[in-house]
Design goal:
This protein is mainly alpha-helical. It has 17 helices and nine strands. The protein has a single domain, classed as Glycosyltransferase. The two termini are about 15 Å apart. The structure holds alpha-D-glucopyranose. The site of alpha-D-glucopyranose has 7 residues, from helix 2.
Length: about 425
């Protein structure tokens, strides 16, 4: 890539975040996603810190306006915070029906990237005094969120947190969820999808998928958002390896930040949770695929689908076993890897949501983990494919791993933020 092209992409990335800025929170993209999303916000703040430090800390402060503070859900950070009303998105706040109204939120979470992004932001920040002040506010709230994950999503202290909705995994439509979702009844109530107003149906989930995820949303509300009832009775309960690894890594970063800045948190409980996950992680290993995979908690079986979440084990610092060979083979088949599902697998679809396309923020996490664990050649390959995508197609929501074509939403915030973080 030429230096001119790099500068141009950087200007465009900054302009994308500015254009998507809604005064305190950044919408992922106009129209399709007009509110604040949890893991998008964490990645987007990583982009803001490269050129507007106060704005980066604001992103977190606004996200935390959505945190719940009472009862068994204490510490919960929802996957959407509805800071304002918009009709272009389904399901909006009335559909979720949560008791929290100022601002209203959804009732499920998303992969907890926060502490890791915060630590990277801390390392990058030039105004250390302002950064330390922000972190003293934010870190205790994130610690309560980790406590929420371990307490409500792993009530038996097995070491493997579960998730109770495909949207909670952040990788909504991944082939791993097909069987677990097929057990969920289809809703019979009427509702109006809005995503197809913005993106072609061939790149979005099917109607059958929507009918079942709407059922799960309603189940949550009918259970009165009680995590105990949900953990026992929700018809969709899976262990998502990506969430396990992201939480595990984030807990280490949380402990490190709290230690460095002398912020009081319950470090002993977090260390105990980490130790449990280290013991339990081998249950996720698929000998057949040479990859960490997901687990169906209802059937008790591993879900033998080749999806990219397992490649976060390096990032988590969990033994990667023979995964380097697996990743290398995946990259051989995908000129613009890392695909969300292995190219050529039964359920691979190059252009459909989470069933094949590449997401740049996932590449960013893969690359960081690979580099930290000394897998330099693989880290370089992942980086090269990310840069090629930025160069060819700019800041789309996701990309075709075979052609590099940009897909889904355009001028996408976390994609632009990933560029800003990765470019140097
Ligand atoms: C989609 C993605 C999810 C993301 C959201 C906003 O729902 O699957 O991961 O957080 O869009 O970008």
């Amino acid at each position: 890539m030429t230096p001119e092209r790099r500068d141009q992409l950087t200007r465009e990335a900054q302009a994308t975040l500015r254009a998507n800025d809604r005064g305190g929170y950044t919408q992922p993209t106009a129209g399709l996603y007009p509110f604040q999303w949890d893991w998008d916000a964490a990645v987007t703040a990583l982009g803001w810190i490269t050129f507007d430090e106060p704005r980066a800390w604001e992103e977190f402060r606004w996200l935390l306006k959505g945190q719940w503070h009472d009862g068994p859900q204490d510490g919960f950070i929802p996957h959407i915070v509805f800071h304002q009303r918009a009709d272009s998105y389904f399901p909006g706040p009335d559909e979720w029906g949560t008791p929290k109204t100022d601002p209203p939120t959804s009732s499920i979470s998303q992969p907890p990237l926060h502490a890791t992004m915060l630590r990277w932001m801390w390392q990058r920040a030039r105004d250390k005094a302002a950064a330390a002040q922000a972190l003293r506010e934010i870190v205790p709230a994130i610690a309560r969120h980790h406590a929420w994950w371990y307490r409500t999503r792993d009530p038996q202290a097995s070491g493997l947190v579960m998730t109770i909705h495909p949207w909670e995994t952040g990788r909504d439509n991944a082939p791993s969820w097909d069987e677990a979702l097929a057990r969920v009844p289809r809703t019979t109530r009427p509702y109006q999808r809005r995503d197809l107003d913005h993106v072609a149906g061939s790149q979005r989930p099917t109607q059958d998928f929507y009918d079942r995820v709407v059922f799960l949303m309603d189940f949550n509300r009918e259970a009165n958002f009680d995590p105990g009832v949900i953990a026992r009775e929700c018809p969709f309960r899976v262990v998502d390896a990506a969430i396990v690894f992201i939480l595990h890594r984030a807990t280490s970063d949380l402990l490190a930040l709290a230690d460095e800045l002398s912020i009081p948190i319950d470090a002993a409980a977090l260390r105990a949770a980490r130790a449990r996950t280290e013991v339990a992680a081998p249950q996720l290993w698929s000998q057949t695929l040479g990859l960490y995979v997901n687990l169906d908690q209802v059937s008790g079986a591993r879900i033998e689908q080749p999806v990219h979440g397992g490649f976060l084990s390096w990032y988590a610092g969990i033994a990667a076993r023979t995964q380097a060979h697996t990743l290398s083979a995946w990259l051989d088949d995908a000129p613009f890897g890392v695909p969300s599902t292995r190219v050529g697998a039964d359920r691979f679809e190059a252009q459909r949501y989470w069933r094949g396309p590449v997401w740049q923020h996932m590449n960013l996490l893969f690359e960081a983990g690979l580099r930290e664990q000394g897998e330099t050649a693989l880290a370089d390959r992942v980086r090269a494919s990310s840069l090629a995508l930025f160069d060819a197609s700019g800041f789309h929501e996701y990309y075709d791993p075979l052609t590099g074509a940009g897909l889904g939403g355009t001028r996408f915030s976390w994609t632009a933020a990933s560029w800003l973080h990765m470019r140097s």
